[in-house]
Amino acid sequence: MKDAMPRFDLPPADLRAYRPDVAEPADFDAFWRSTLAESRARSEAPRLTPVDAGLTTVDVYDVTFSGYGGDPVGGWFIVPAGAEGPLPTIVEFNGYNGGRGLPHERLAWASAGYAHFFMDTRGQGSGWGTGGVTADPHGTGPSVSGFMTRGVEDPDTYFYRRVFTDAVLAVDAVRSLPQVDAERVSVSGTSQGGGIAIAAAGLSDGLVGAMPDVPFLCHFERAVGLTDRDPYQEVVRYLSVHRDAAARVFETLSYFDGVNFAARATAPALFSVALMDPVCPPSTVYAARNRWGASSGSTPAADIVEYAFNEHEGGSGAHWPRQARWVAERLAGAGAGG
């Protein structure tokens, strides 16, 4: 095992109280209302195709649903074999530049009795893992290699406008499936997937819970100046060339900051954070967790698990059992069963 880097962020006690001022556009809510309304107007019913994945304990479906602008987005829908539902459901989002992979890599939630939808991230899926299938058919102008700066000088053209819209419409699509109990849907994801889950929680109503695991895409201005790791360094490299664009870039990023979505969340959350994480610095995670529900008119709980001696791997496989217990407790507390 490689040596972990030393802690470089705030002391743990300061992290737990960290509530920074994060830029929030005056038209943040209007921007997202119009974005979602435009794409929902072009949505079609999701298409499910049964897949023989060589698995006997689960049923697997290849899914295509309508995302941003009506674009087709892929995913896997996996349920316990023979299940008719309606089942509590987990919608999961993936890490940076990973794809939906293969069905046998996504068995935990269905094995625990849930329906599980794993969304493919548009344009990604070629950096690690076993691939993705979803194109991103939109041009973005000049950008640094990667996804962080694609269209970053205008919120209308920014890459994550499309991804976050896909995520919300994934929740919509899942709720329309007969195997799914639309009142018992949770969202989850690790790293980029955690950031997407935060956005989905801030933009979707009626979720049971959100489980952002070492989330990315939070408190951009601090992250870009604090860590020397990608993907945040993509923004640094872009601004090192486009020297006069910083104000425009950070204004765009404010429409996509996980802290602002977290403030609008109405469902309870279970975060995780790694205190030696150089990719998603712990203060950026706590910035989102400590604002959870602050602007939503409700008071959802935001639990957090600290992994004191881990980097960006966080709790890895040790964290899923905590998530499974947590979401089961939320369902039981709602009188819905697990």
Automatic annotation (TrEMBL):
Residues 5-327 form the Acetyl xylan esterase domain. It comes from the Bacteria. The active site is at S191 (nucleophile), D277 (charge relay system), H312 (charge relay system). GO terms for molecular function: cephalosporin-C deacetylase activity. Keywords: Hydrolase. GO terms for biological process: polysaccharide metabolic process. The keyword Hydrolase applies. InterPro entries: AB_hydrolase_fold (IPR029058), AXE1_dom (IPR008391), CE7 (IPR039069). Its EC number is 3.1.1.41. Substrate binds at Y96. This is Cephalosporin-C deacetylase. It comes from Agromyces terreus. The lineage of its organism: Bacteria, Bacillati, Actinomycetota, Actinomycetes, Micrococcales.
